[in-house]
Write a structure and sequence with these properties.
- The complex is a heterodimer of chains A (118) and B (291).
- By secondary structure, chain A is mostly helical.
- Chain A has one domain: Orthogonal Bundle (Arc Repressor Mutant, subunit A), CATH 1.10.10.
- Chain A is built from five helices and two strands; from the N terminus they run αααβαβα.
- Chain A has a two-stranded antiparallel ribbon with strand order 1-2.
- In chain A, helix 1 packs across helix 2.
- Chain A is elongated and about 55 Å long.
- The longest helix of chain B is centred in the last third of the chain and has 43 residues.
- About 11% of the residues of chain B have low confidence.
- Chain B has 291 residues and is mostly helical.
- In chain B, helix 5 packs antiparallel against helix 6 and helix 6 packs antiparallel against helix 7.
- Chain B is elongated and about 95 Å long.
- Classes of the chains: A mainly alpha (118), B mainly alpha (291).
- The interface between A and B is medium-sized, with 22 and 28 residues.
Chain lengths: 118, 291
C-alpha cells in the first residue's frame, strides 16, 4: 500500500519519541537494540520490536532525513570486545515531524477525548 | 553449541540470504547492524531466554526484511536507469543482439528480395526495399535512442518491428516486441511512480501488458495468424516445393512449421495469461468491494 504524502507511521512516531526522550536523558545517540528495549519499555509490552520491522523503519526514516547515523569508533568496540554499533540520532527535521504529529494528535484528542493514536 | 550462538547463526544466515544481490554497501551495513544487535541482545544481563526471543524477533521481522529487500532493489534499479549513459541496463544483452539482428535482417531481406526479383517490375521492388529499410532503420535507431531514453527507444523498436512485418521473421519479431514493451513498461512505471499525473497516463495508455483483455484479444489474432501462415508460404498452386531447391524447401518447411506451432503456442500462452489476470482482477475487485 502506498503511503500518503506526509503520513507518519506509528512505529516512526514511537522511534522519534524514544530518540528525543533518550536525548533528554543525556543519550544523544542510540543503537538498534537499545532503541528496541526503549520502545518495549515505553509501550509497556513484553516483546522487542522485530529485527526486520525496526531496521526497515530506521532505514526509511534516515532516508527521509528524520534520523542520522554513523558507525561508532572501532576502538571503543574493540576495547569492550563487541561488534561495532551503528549509532542513530534524531535530526532537527525529525523533531519537527514529531512535534507536528503530537500537535495533531492533541487537537484530535480535544475534539474526541476517547480517541487515541493507536 | 549453545542455543544463543545457534539462533544468532540462523539470523545471520537469513540476513546473508536476503541481502544477497543488493548493493554491497547496503547489504554489508545491514549484516553488521544485525550482528551488533544480536550480540547486544544475547549479552544483555536484563534479557532472559534471549535465544528464544532472538528467534521470535527474527520470525516476526521476516516480511519486513523481504519488503525492505524489494524496495532496495527497486531503488537501486531506478538509480541505475536514471543515471545518464547507463540506461542500457534496462535491456538484456541477448535481447539487444536479437533486436540488432532483426533490424539488419529487415534491411537485407527487403533489399535482397528487390535486387533478385526477376519479374521485370521496378517500382514495386524499390518501394518494398525502401519500406523494409525504413522499418529496419527504425529498429536500429531505437537501439541507439535507448541509450538516452529507454522508453522512447523501446517504443521505436516496437513500432519498427511491427511495421512491415515479415512472417519469416515472426519468432525474432515476437521476441523483440515482447522485450521492447516489457522494458518500456517497466521503466516507465518506475519513472512515474512518484508522479501522480504521469502515473494516471501510464495506467491509461501504456500499461497494456497488465490488462487481461489485451492478452485475450492477442490470443485469437495469433491463432488466426498461425492458421493463415501456410497460405503465405505455400501460395504457389503447384505445390509447396515447386520452383525451389530441395534445401530451400526444407528450410521453408521448418520455418513454416515453427511459425505455425509457435503462433498457436503463443496464442495459448496469451489466453492463459489473460485468464489468470482476469481472474486475479476479479478476485481483487471482489475483495476490495465493500459488502
Amino acid at each position: 500500500m502506498r503511503r500518503k504524502p506526509g503520513a507518519v507511521l506509528p512505529i516512526e512516531v514511537s522511534i522519534l519519541a524514544a530518540g528525543v526522550q533518550l536525548s533528554k536523558s543525556g543519550i544523544s545517540e542510540f543503537h538498534g537494540f537499545e532503541l528496541a528495549k526503549r520502545l518495549r519499555d515505553d509501550d509497556g509490552g513484553r516483546r522487542l520490536t522485530a529485527h526486520g520491522t525496526l531496521y526497515k523503519a530506521l532505514s526509511r526514516m534516515e532516508k527521509a532525513g528524520w534520523l542520522t547515523s554513523q558507525w561508532e569508533d572501532p576502538d571503543a568496540a574493540t576495547d569492550e570486545g563487541r561488534p561495532r554499533r551503528r549509532l542513530y540520532s534524531v535530526t532537527a527535521e525529525g523533531r519537527v515531524v514529531l512535534a507536528r504529529v503530537l500537535a495533531e494528535a492533541a487537537a484530535v484528542t480535544r475534539l474526541d477525548p476517547g480517541w487515541s493514536p493507536s | 553449541m549453545s542455543a544463543g550462538p545457534r539462533s544468532s547463526r540462523l539470523v545471520a544466515a537469513w540476513t546473508r540470504l536476503y541481502t544477497a544481490g543488493l548493493p554491497s554497501a547496503l547489504g554489508e551495513r545491514r549484516r553488521l547492524e544485525l550482528e551488533s544487535d544480536l550480540w547486544e541482545q544475547l549479552h544483555d544481563p536484563t534479557e532472559s531466554h534471549a535465544s528464544r526471543l532472538v528467534l521470535g524477533r527474527w520470525l516476526r521481522g521476516v516480511p519486513a526484511d523481504l519488503g525492505w529487500r524489494y524496495r532496495t532493489l527497486v531503488d537501486a534499479r531506478r538509480a541505475r536507469l536514471t543515471t545518464p549513459g547507463d540506461a542500457r541496463v534496462g535491456g538484456r544483452g541477448w535481447w539487444v543482439v536479437a533486436t540488432a539482428l532483426l533490424g539488419v535482417a529487415k534491411i537485407v531481406m527487403s533489399v535482397g528480395a528487390s535486387v533478385f526479383a526477376n519479374d521485370g517490375a521496378v517500382i514495386g521492388p524499390v518501394i518494398a526495399a525502401t519500406l523494409g529499410s525504413l522499418t529496419g532503420g527504425l529498429v536500429l535507431a531505437g537501439l541507439v535512442v535507448r541509450h538516452r531514453n529507454l522508453v522512447n527507444g523501446s517504443w521505436l523498436i516496437v513500432a519498427g518491428s511491427v511495421a512491415g512485418f515479415d512472417p519469416i521473421l515472426l519468432p525474432f519479431t515476437a521476441l523483440v516486441v515482447i522485450g521492447g514493451v516489457w522494458s518500456a513498461d517497466l521503466q516507465f512505471s518506475e519513472t512515474v511512480e512518484d508522479e501522480p499525473r504521469l502515473h494516471v497516463a501510464y495506467r491509461q495508455q501504456l500499461s497494456l501488458t497488465r490488462r487481461w483483455y489485451v492478452w485475450l484479444a492477442a490470443a485469437p489474432l495469433l491463432f488466426g495468424f498461425g492458421l493463415l501462415f501456410p497460405l503465405f508460404v505455400y501460395s504457389d498452386t503447384t505445390g509447396p516445393t515447386d520452383g525451389h531447391s530441395e534445401g530451400l524447401a526444407a528450410i521453408v518447411d521448418i520455418v513454416a512449421w515453427m511459425t505455425w506451432w509457435g503462433s498457436w503456442l503463443a496464442a495459448a500462452v496469451c489466453a492463459g495469461v489473460g485468464l489468470v489476470l482476469g481472474v486475479l482482477r476479479g478476485v481483487v475487485h471482489h475483495r476490495a468491494t465493500p459488502a
